[in-house]
Automatic annotation (TrEMBL):
Chain's gene name: fliR
Membrane topology of this protein: Multi-pass membrane protein
Example GO BP: bacterial-type flagellum assembly
InterPro entries membership: FliR, T3SS_IM_R
GO cellular component, one term: plasma membrane
Protein purpose: Role in flagellar biosynthesis.
Assigned protein family: Belongs to the FliR/MopE/SpaR family.
Full protein name: Flagellar biosynthetic protein FliR
Organism of provenance: Noviherbaspirillum cavernae
Length: 264
């Protein structure tokens, strides 16, 4: 007769529940997986499948009841780790969306906004275009698979334990958030610079010929120059986008490594 002790039962439940929580935390936030258009059942099914594959490779877990207070604290800790990993990759997409917003506002397309299901807010047409382009690069370079691989390796670099997480990891995550502004401005700089020169030229033309209707000719010219610069820069955008996505993976690894509890 097979007998199962309560300690063994707790170990089996915890060995599946705790990794599943970290996985679901990443899936709920990470690009592509966390999109609002993806059904919740599909996200849960993907998380369960990944947990079934990853759980047997997870290092030794704390021997405690997962439904006890310490067990629930570990559960919450794994959720925070997964959310931080997914949010670090989401920052890359946010920086590219900011580049589109800056370019769109400079071109005079601030009125051309659409509903963004990812952020559940309104974003400009150029921002949506660059976000879709980044998603295609994200899939073409298999970064979504690299992200899942990084998630699997995180159980080794940041094992599941009852120890308190180090605050260095959250400091790295906050510092990585600055990438939204630096990368966004750098990506939009060619369009912004070209439009600045265009506006200066239009200002000089207006001073030279005051009879010209600046609002009549300025608006189509700035939009045309903006689209022209966007078309010229498209062949070269794949390289910085790929580099940004790889930087996001590196940032996730640094964040998880910095979260490892320090010995007292």
């Amino acid at each position: 007769m097979i007998t199962i002790t309560s300690a063994e039962l707790y170990t089996w439940v915890a060995s599946f529940l705790w990794p599943l929580t970290r996985i679901l935390g990443l899936i709920s936030v990470a690009p592509l997986f966390g999109n609002v258009s993806v059904p919740a059942r599909l996200k849960l099914g993907l998380g369960v499948m990944l947990a079934i594959v990853i759980a047997p490779t997870v290092p030794t877990l704390p021997a405690m009841d997962p439904m006890s207070l310490p067990g629930l604290l570990i559960l919450l800790q794994q959720l925070v780790i997964g959310l931080a990993m997914g949010f670090a990759m989401r920052i890359v997409f946010a920086s590219i969306e900011l580049a589109g917003e800056v370019s769109s506002m400079t071109m005079g397309l601030g009125f051309a906004v659409f509903y963004d299901p990812q952020s559940r807010g309104r974003s400009s047409a150029i921002s949506q275009f660059l976000a879709l382009l980044t998603m295609m690069v994200y899939l073409a370079t298999n970064m979504h698979l690299v992200l899942l691989s990084t998630l699997a390796h995180s159980f080794t670099s940041l094992p599941i334990s009852a120890a308190t997480l180090s605050g260095e990891g959250f400091r790295h995550l906050a510092g990585w958030g600055a990438k939204i502004f630096s990368a966004g401005i750098q990506l939009s700089l060619p369009i912004v610079a070209a439009l600045l020169i265009t506006n200066i030229a239009l200002g000089i033309l207006t001073r030279a010929a005051p009879a010209l209707n600046l609002f009549g000719i300025g608006f189509p010219i700035t939009i045309g120059v903006g689209f022209l610069m966007l078309a010229l820069s498209l062949p070269y955008l794949a390289t910085p986008m790929t580099r940004l996505l790889q930087d996001g993976i590196d940032a996730i690894q640094q964040i998880t490594a910095a979260m490892v509890p320090k010995p007292r």
